[in-house]
Amino acid sequence: MGIKERHERDREAVSRAILDAARELFVAEGFQNVSIRKIAERIEYSPAAIYGYFPSKDDIFFALAEEGFRLLGDPAAVRQDPQLQHAPPIERIRAVFWRFYEFSREQPQYFALMFVDRSVPRISREYERFAFARDLKQHIVEELRACIAAGELPATLDPFVAMRALTAGLLGVAVLRLSERLAPGENSDLLASDVLNLTLAGLRAGVTLQSPARVDCPLDIPAPIADAQAS
Amino acid sequence: MGIKERHERDREAVSRAILDAARELFVAEGFQNVSIRKIAERIEYSPAAIYGYFPSKDDIFFALAEEGFRLLGDPAAVRQDPQLQHAPPIERIRAVFWRFYEFSREQPQYFALMFVDRSVPRISREYERFAFARDLKQHIVEELRACIAAGELPATLDPFVAMRALTAGLLGVAVLRLSERLAPGENSDLLASDVLNLTLAGLRAGVTLQSPARVDCPLDIPAPIADAQAS
DNA sequence: TAATATTATGAACAGTGTTCACATATTAAG
DNA sequence: CTTAATATGTGAACACTGTTCATAATATTA
């Protein structure tokens, strides 16, 4: 009996239509400015119908954020890029973080939703769901560990701190770009490249860092409980 | 006749009450979650009354952003800090950017409104009004120029690029903190300090940078016309 | 064909930013 | 002191928002 299967396919199709419409509208108009009614109109359903597929507008965001992490998630693919397979580990680090920055260009709204926007439901609410995203961070730490093992970064360096520093730098450039704080002539790509090289040079220089290593929970997303700075 | 003066004082008092209420509510609940009605209720006025003082909710934000820039604006004061008066120029750079980061801690909502949030009216809409904020950036560039002149940074370094790199790094840390992307045990202060030292070390290392110098319009806020990524 | 489970809908609720005619003071002029 | 003029605050309303729910329509099963 393929009827139940077809039912599930139909549901999946509508669900996809909702997500596609929501994504397109978010990319075009920003999360805050997209209403359930607009999404409903786009897919020619009633606003209430959407609530048969997603319990809330927040949940539509979570579904899209998951897609976003999987889109970005191919730094794992970068890791297996044949061209980079036998490149120096430091080049792979460069590639991974460059991809992080490029993602902020290619998918600015995804990036903003995932890493910047504060008026968006906190991903930490869905702790389990985004476990795979935490694993990505762990991979990067391993790559950095490889750099240290290969002697391309000082042995005294904490790979977790290095990951944070690189993330912070490129995130900063991305935010400057996304929040339109760069002067008209400024090239954010060049700035991102400079920040990447600058931070790597700083890491190589072996300055004494203060941040303690974090072996446990070395990930972006905090534990699910706290919500101190509630909105 | 002090009657007109008293009138102006009265208006100023109500205006201040609105801003104070708005600021407190923004700090407590976030810009997006504060309604004109909530502000009105707080000051025991009708919602419509507020529109006699500010033409829109956006304009309340602009007024607060201006306050925020003036609060932060004391890196100019840092510049004249007697303790730093005869300190090496590089230490004054450190102080200025550390203050930038500290501001993100002490006034997280101000900081978010001014530098991060994208669901807030673009400051570039009020180009003239925030000219003084652009001057602050110029001061920092001058400080960096002094570092180069003093031989504490390479002569090949473009001070404007250096400013951007330092801004990006600390902005990144601030965003990591504000968007709650740090693991529970992570200390963002230490990370900020590390990023600051790391970037300075990178700058000292004299890596070849690509970003071209920008003598004209070397400021955060773009020209007032463009609004391509409209919401 | 009749009963049953899904699914979509219109209407409504409580909230939002904003506008506007109207009432209400407060000041200036006669 | 009374009257005209000028601000200033208000309630009601408009067009939105996210969300809920009883009802209607549909498709599947018996």
**Assembly state of the chains shown:** homodimer
CATH superfamily of the largest domain in chain A: Tetracycline Repressor, domain 2
Give the strand tally of chain A: 0
- What would the CATH topology of the largest domain in chain A be? Tetracycline Repressor, domain 2
Radius of gyration of chain A: 20 Å
Can you name the CATH architecture of the largest domain in chain A? Orthogonal Bundle
Overall domain count of chain A: 2
| First-last Cα distance of chain A | 49 Å
> What's the helix-strand series of chain A?
HHHHHHHHHHH
CATH class annotation of the largest domain in chain A: Mainly Alpha
Helical segment count of chain A: 11
Helix content of chain A: 55-70%
| Residue fraction in strands of chain A | under 5%
Averaged pLDDT of chain A: 85
Largest protein interface, residues of each chain: A-B, 68 and 68 residues
Estimated structural class of chain A: mainly alpha
Plain-language structure description:
2 copies of one chain form a homodimer. With about 230 residues, chain A is mainly α. Chain A has 2 domains: about 1-55, Homeodomain-like (Arc Repressor Mutant, subunit A), CATH 1.10.10; about 55-220, Tetracycline Repressor, domain 2 (Orthogonal Bundle). Chain A contains 11 helices and no strands. In chain A, helix 7 packs antiparallel against helix 9 (about 130-150), helix 7 (about 90-105) runs parallel beside helix 10 and helix 9 (about 130-150) crosses helix 10 (about 160-180). Chain A is elongated, with a radius of gyration of 20 Å. Chains A and B meet through helix 8, helix 10 and helix 11 of A and helix 8, helix 10 and helix 11 of B. The structure holds a DNA duplex (30 and 30 nucleotides).
